[in-house]
Amino acid sequence: MSKDVTSSRKKIKTIPSNCIASGNCTLVAPDLFGQDDEGVVVARVTRLSAVQLADAQSAAAACPVAAIVLEDDVGTEE
Asked: What residues make up the domain containing 30?
């Protein structure tokens, strides 16, 4: 019996127009998020590994304006 892991995979979507450059995401998950020259959130990765998921969830929760969204990754299987 194979385990369906596709449904548990997540990817990062950022909404730059929501970002107020608080920097919370970069403090919580610096490996996953950075900021451009104006301080706006930039995702360093898009598809998350199982190891990265908890940090991405914490960063999304720390964002005061919901500029980070984690979506189901329905892309190609690896």
From this structure: 10-72
